Every structure is written in structure tokens, then in C-alpha cells.
Amino acid sequence: MSFLAPLLLLGLAGLLVPIAIHLIGRRRAKVVRFAALEFLIATRRRTARRFQLRERLLLLVRVLLCVALPLAVAKPFTSCASRGPLVARGPQAAVLIVDDSFTAGYRLDGRTLLGRAVDEAARLLTQLGPEAEVAVVRASEGAVHPTELSREHLRLRDQLADLSPTARPADLDRALARAAQLLSGSNHARRTIYLLSPLTTAALRGADPPWGADGPTLEVLDIRNGAALPNLAVVGLRVEPDPGAGSRGIAAVAEIANHSLLPAAGVTVNLKVAGQIIARGQVDLAPGETKHKRFLATLPPGRRSAEVAVELPTDALPADDRRHAMAQLRDEVRVLLVDGDPHAARHDDELFYVEAALRPGDRAEAGTVVTKITPDELDDAELEQHDVVVLANVAALPADPVARLAAWVTAGGGLLVAPGDRVDPAAYERTMLPLLPQSLRDPIDTAWGAAPDERAARALHLTKWEADHPIFAPFARDAPGLSDARFTKIVLLGPTTDTDDRKVLARFTNGAAALVEARKGDGRLLLYASTLDRDWNDLPIHPGYLPLIQESVRHLARRRVEGAAAAMLVGQGTSLPTLDLRKLEVRGPEHTGAVFEGARIEGRRAVRFTGTDAPGIYRVIGTDRTGATRDRDELEFAVNLDPRGSDLSPAPANLIPGAGAGVETRSRPSERRVELWHALAAALLVLLLVESVLIQRAR
Amino acid sequence: MPRLDPVALARLGSLPLKARVIVEGALSGLHRARLHGSSVEFAEHKEYSPGDELRHVDWRAYAKLDRYYVKQYEQESQLTVFVVLDGSGSMRFAGAGISKLEYAGLCLAALAYLVVQQQDKIGLLVFGGPGGDILVPARARTSHLTDVLGVIDGAIAGDSGDDGSPAAALDRVGELARRKRALVVLASDLFDPDDRTVAALRRLRAQRHDVAVLHILAPEERSFPYEGLTLFEALESDHRLLANPAAIRKDYLDRMDGFLRRVSDELTAAGVEYHLCPTDRAVEDTLLELLATRQRLQLSGARR
After folding, report:
1. Which residues of B lie inside 8 Å of A (Cβ-Cβ)?
2. What are the domain boundaries of chain B?
């Protein structure tokens, strides 16, 4: 502490005055000889202690008064290092950019970074003075920015007080651009941008400064004060069905990042399904390392979708210690089997093996709903109620049903055509071409004319299948369950030049196409070159038959519902199919959501929802034409934080704008003089008040 | 009639003169001042004649005999009055006026003068003085008054003694009076260290003596008018007390009021006449109050 007028400290000698007065006053007390002294002594016993205390307190107060007065007039001051910029008071234009991204929710020394930024901003506002035109600009991505500078500092203070960390990452470049735009409209010569942010790498995206040589001064205040901000975060979560874990099995793969300079050992990772912790694991992370943690789990009974979350122990930034996803089991595929060769004996029926493959054990959880009809019943069938149609050994259909089927496929249906004895290639050539990826030719019988012991050797086998195709995903490249099957009769396919939408997925050992796929509109066509029963081959009794049929059907199944994107981030919009509903309501966490009804949904195939302002699961409730309302699990979606915001490492100096000419950047600590005489003057007043009260009470 | 200021009275000179001024000057003009005992006895009936006091007419006799008769009383032969003066140190507190001892001495001297004038016996006991108790036996002679007043004067002029207790002096008076009924007048501030004074007065009443107490207090003791840091010194001991009077005034006055109320209640309950006598009050007023009370008691005794 130093003094502007140290000579005035000589006045400290005045503190002897009250002491002297106190002592002299005791000696100069009036002497009274009094008869009723016993009464006084009895009274005095009760009040003596209080009296002495008051006397001593009074002496102390008077001594302090005599000390405080010369100290105050000597104008003491002290110096302190100030991180904040030096602020000049007076008419000027200024913009306070406050980082309110979720990163600002980081707790440092018991306070959030946003709390520090708000305090600093309020202090700056005070120092700027009432003549300054100021705007507060939020730095979170997508934040609504002010349109003009204002002198209503009270309102600005309210704005600051209302700030809370959003769920979005910071976008300082956009905020700086907006600040520069606001200041460019000001007539003040002094224009300053005060940037209050932890200045993370993710927040600064390296854009050029949005001002020229005559731009505003940029004062940068690193509210982290140079501290490292270690952070563990779940930066990714992918959930997909996993048949290996059962019919309701799912696999959840979490991505855990250690944004720190220190290793993190034994980090507990919890998996929650439908709100319950059902798995727990540990992971060790080196500094800066990101690791994947895979969990296998099953959904609760009766559920085909559920909320999945992966959680880490709470750290200084709790917002990114949790990530959400929706687990959706595959939808049940509605398959219409058209039996071209029905038989009373089940095992002789053309579709006996297909049915068994699609519904093994006839279990409800097989994932398929099978309807079997004859070709004659096809006219009455409601194709819209099915995802896949299988024409098994069906004789060539008339033009009308073919046209209906073709239109249905174009709209997104899947059609599997398999030949048989009832299939006449010539008749197919006439009417069925719209339903085929390739025309048919006459079948060949490899066993024709061969001795019984040679038939096996002359049989064809499947080979060269597209291992990367979804249909063959379950199989290895040399899967014996497929390659061991013998094909004694196959139908050959005619030549075609249309190669864009057609693809041969598998061939026989003689080079003939065994499985051909083609796209037709939004749908798919699949042509199998042999029978689906054992008439022309023995594949149905090989292990590969069941997965081949199931995967073929699933591949063909049109996507009835395109669910929301699995990896949606806060602030991103999503398109929701209306499903011919009368009303669609989205309910998100923290009271977010929207209701689509009336003109907002009528006549639309999809609506766009953009209110994803909070991370979590967004439920979708639909009301159909009959007025029935229920949760649309298939439309539920998860929204998560932008993982870029979890990396709190400080931005390199070259990313901080302001290197251009005419722009001054100052973030170094500065020396600031703090005058103390105001406080001493206030103390003087308080002491005078206390003395008055003490004297008053003594009377 | 103008009253005599106690301070002016104190400057008059010798105590006999002061007593005479009080009795003959201030009291003679009021009415025939006479000190009564409470023991008057019925003597005989006399036929009513004009000039007799109507209040003495015996109405019962009139009812029986249809003639007016007047009751005639005979006072006991001679009244014996013992005055007891508190000469302790606390009585020497003066305040702005005369000391409590001087005031008490004036009151008792005037009373002795009055008693001797009506040819009754007067005795004196001074306690609490430096030389112990001083007793002047009860006599009715005029020359005896000189002895009584001389002792009172000596007690006033002498040094302060110990803080004596009135109880022992009162008990001694009781012994002296024996079976002879007497009027005992105690002049004291009742700052009794052993708190036995009331019990002693009650014993005197039990012996059928008439007892009156002149409770002498200085005005300063009742109002505590001091200001500023003050060192209070005891009159009867070495006790000293440095205090801010403003801080303890309320508590002191509460205690003093409680003391006065307690003394008054206890003495009245014991059948003792109680007279609170501030030292700034005219001495003749105090005497008149005492005489009036005695007269009232005599009349009420006569009706019985």
C-alpha cells in the first residue's frame, strides 16, 4: 500500500487524543459523597460489565476514527494485476461477446466459466459508463443476436443475468462478424469488441477477421485465466441391432475421449437402456486419446425400440458426460407369398421351405409377417399392406395384375421372382417383363441324360456371390452352407444392355446368373434362377438357405419409415414423415418440442422439426384420422451435443483474430491502481455512526 | 402562613431557639398545638348545657332516658414521649440543602419543646454516633429540655459514627418505657444494614406503645440528579464507585421506589405511623402532619 500524500500520516499522532481523554476523564470524575451507596452498588453490579464494555468500545471506536481520518486524507492506494482490459469511461461503442456455449458450463474453482464471463461483462459495463452504447452478443452457435447498440444498461445487465449455458458449441467467428457489423453502424471514434471466452480450439474456426484496417479494437479476455481444462466426454454413440445378442439384441458402441494432458485410468462407463443401467465397463485413456467401448444388450421384453444412453462419471463439464441414442430393432417385414404350385401335402408345397425360413419355429419374434395366397387371389390382395411379394413358381400373370405389381414396386415395394415348372419363359416374355430384371430363357437340366451316380457330379453350385452385399453379409466368402448346395436345374436369363440398375449378386459354377437384382423406381426386383423348394435344387436343406431367404426379404423390404438420423446434433433440423396422420407432436427434453396439425401437416408427406435445442430423446406422438393417439416409436430420435465443443484445449494464438493492421489485441495482465480512500471514508462514516449510537445508549 | 425554609431555619442559631421558633412561631397560629397520646379514658356523664360539643352527646343515653347527657373523658395522667435520633453516617448526607441529621434534629427538637410545654415527659436516645448510644431519660421538667436539645445539638455537630442499627436502640427504648405506655418517635433514613428495624418497631407496638417513624430522605436520594462521570463515596465506609449516573439512574430509582414502598407497607401493616420527610420540606409541615395524625388517632380512640 502506498500514499499520495504521506506527510498527512503525521495526523496519526491524533490517536493519542482519545486515549488521553479517556484516562483524564476517569481522573476528573466528580466526587459525590452519597448515602444510598448500597443501592448504587447493587445496581452497578448488573451494569458494570456492560458499562466497561461500552466504555472500551467507545475508546476503540474513537481511536479508529483518529487513525482512519489521517489515513483517508493521505489517499492510500494499492496496485493489483488485472486480467481485464483497461477500460476508458465515456462516449464510445462497445460489444460484449459472451461465450454461452455448453463449454461455458465448465466449472472451474466452483464457478462456471459463463458465471465468470458474466461477472466480467457486468464489470466492463460499469467501467464503460452510462454514455457508452453497448450490445451483448452471445457466442453460441445459432444464437439470436441483437440488431443495434443500446444505452439501456439496466436491460443489458438483465440480459447478462439471464444467460445460461446453451447446448450448442461456440461459434466465435460468427459472433465477431456480428459485433463488427453492429459497430460499423456507430459514429463513435472509439469502438471496441470485448471477447469473453475460454477461447477453445473448436470455438475459433480460423476465419479471417471480419473487419479491415479501420476496424474496432479487439480486447480478448480469456476467462479460463490460462488454466488447463481437462475433460472426459462421450463424443459418439452408435446403436444397432445385433442378432448375436438375441432377437432383441443390440450393440452399442460408445466413443470416449480424454481431452486432457493427463491419462485417465479406470473410467467407468455405464450403459443405460430404457432408463436402467444394464451394463458397466471401464476404459483407460491416454492423454488426448479416444477409445471405443462396445456393449451388447437386449431391449426390454415387448419393446422394439428404447432409449439408450452412455454415461461417464460427472466431471467439471457434465453436459458431455452423457450421450443418447435410440435403439430400433428391425421392423417386421410383411411378406406376401404367392404360391404358384400349392399342394395339400405341406412338404410338397412350393412355399413350404420359404415359410419355414421366414418364420422359423413360427415364433412371433421372427421379424416377419407372412401371408400366403394363390395367384387367383392376387387381384384382391392389398399390396400396400405388404413390404415384399414373392412369386414362387407362378405362371405368367395377366397384364393388369402385372401393372399393379409394377406400380407397387415403383412406389417402394420389393419383389422376389423364383421360377419353377409352371413358369413359361415365353409367356413371361409377353407379360411379366415389367417385373423382371432380366428376361427368362428356357431352363437347363444338368442331370438330364446323366446316370444316377453322375448326377451329383454334374450339379451346379453357387459361387462368386457379392460378399459385400447385404444379402450375403452373414456369409463368409466360402460359406459351405451355400456352396455345398446342388442345383440340378436352373433357368437361364436373356441378354440385356440395361446395366445401370441391374446387378448379378451370385452366379453358378457354369457362369450363369443365380441371383439378379435391379432397382425399379423406389423399389427392388430380385430374380432367383432356381426354385424356392427342392424341385430343382437341395439348397433348402442346407444351412445357408434360411439366412439367404431372410436377408433377401429384408433387403427387398421397402423402408416404410426412414427414421431420423441417428447422429443428430443440437440445433440440427430433421424431417419427419407425416404417415398420413392428422396431428404430430414432438416432445423433447427440457420442455422443447412442437405440434404439427392443421395446415402445418395437411397434404404434406413430411414436416421439418428444428427445435432440437436440448440433448436427449425426442418422442413423437401421432394422432391418426380416427383420432387414436399413440407414441410413434419408429419416429423417435436422439439429439446430442456437438462433440467438437468437448475439446477445451486452448486455441493457438494464430487462430485468435486481430492480427491485422489497425487492430489491437490485448489479453495480457495489466497493472491497475486501486484507491482505498473511498473505503476508508466509508469506514469513517460507519465509525461515526457507531460512536453516536454508543453515546446515545450511554445516556 | 409562610413556611420556614429548613435551610434558613438552620442558620438561626442555637437549637433551642430553632425549636421555639418552630413551635411558637409557626405552629401557634394554626390552632392549639398539642401532642396527644392515644389513650384517653371515659370518666362520667354530665347533663348537656349550651356550649358543650355536640359530638360528645351520648345518643344511647338520650334514647333510654330522653335527656341529653354529654360524655366526659379523662386523659391519662401524663404522656411519655421517647424520641430516637439516627446519628449514623448516612444521616449526614446533605445534598443541596441541610443534612438529613440536621433535619431530623430540628424535627425532634421542636417535638421535645412541644412536649415539655404541655408538661409531658420527653426522653431521647441517639444511636449510631461516634461515642455509641446517648440516652437522656424521660423527664417533664423545663430544665430537662435543655439536656435533650443539647444532646441533639451535639449529635448534629459531632463526627459521623458507625453505621448503627436502629433496632438495638428501639429495643432499649422498649425496656426503658417498661409497662408505662409511651409514644416513640424514630427519625431515621432507615438504611438499616441488618434489616431488623421493622421487627423492632413491631415489638414496640406489641408492648402497646404508640410508634411513629419520620423517614428522612434527601431529595437527591429520590431523584438521583447527577450527570457525567461521577465517583460516589460512601458516608459510612470506604466504599467508592465510579459510574456514569445516566447508565444506572433508572435501575437505582427503581430500587429506591421499591425500598420506599416496602418500608411504607411493612410499617403500616405493623400499625406504625409512617411519615416520609424529604429534607426540603418545611419542618413545621412535618410536625403538623405528625400532630394531626396523633389527634386523629386520639379521636378515633375516643369514639371506640
Report:
1. 89-93, 100, 189, 191, 218, 221, 226, 228-235, 237, 239, 241-244, 246-248, 251-252, 255-256, 259
2. 6-32+80-303, 40-75
The label of the residue with cell 463515596 reads B233
Do the bridges between strand B183-188 and strand A637-640 make them parallel or antiparallel, or are there none, so unpaired? Answer: unpaired
Place of cell 379521636: B299
Q: How far is it, in rounded angstroms, from Cα A61 to Cα A687?
A: 6
d(CA B229, CA A55): 11
Find out whether A585 and A595 touch, Cβ atoms under 8 Å: yes
Checking ipTM against 0.85, whether it exceeds it is no
Residue B298 has pLDDT above 80, yes or no: no
> Could you tell me how many residues make up chain A?
699
Q: Which fold has domain B6-32+80-303?
A: Rossmann fold (3.40.50)
Distance CA A315, CA A295 (A): 22
Distance CA B104, CA B112 (A): 12
For each of the domains in chain A, give its residue range(s) and CATH number, in order of start: 2-79+677-698 (no CATH), 84-228+648-668 (3.40.50.410), 231-330 (2.60.40.10), 337-556 (3.40.50.880), 568-640 (2.60.40.1930)
Q: What tens digit of pLDDT does each residue of A191-242 get?
A: 899 989 888 888 877 667 777 777 788 888 888 888 888 999 999 998 887 7
Query: In this predicted model, what pLDDT tens digit does every residue of A41-85 receive, in sequence order?
Result: 776 666 666 777 777 888 888 888 888 888 888 888 887 666 566
Interface of A with B (CB under 8 A): 25-26, 28-44, 46-48, 50-51, 698-699
Residue A429 is given by DSSP the state: H
Residues 6+ apart with CB under 8 A from A238: A252, A253, A325, A566, A567
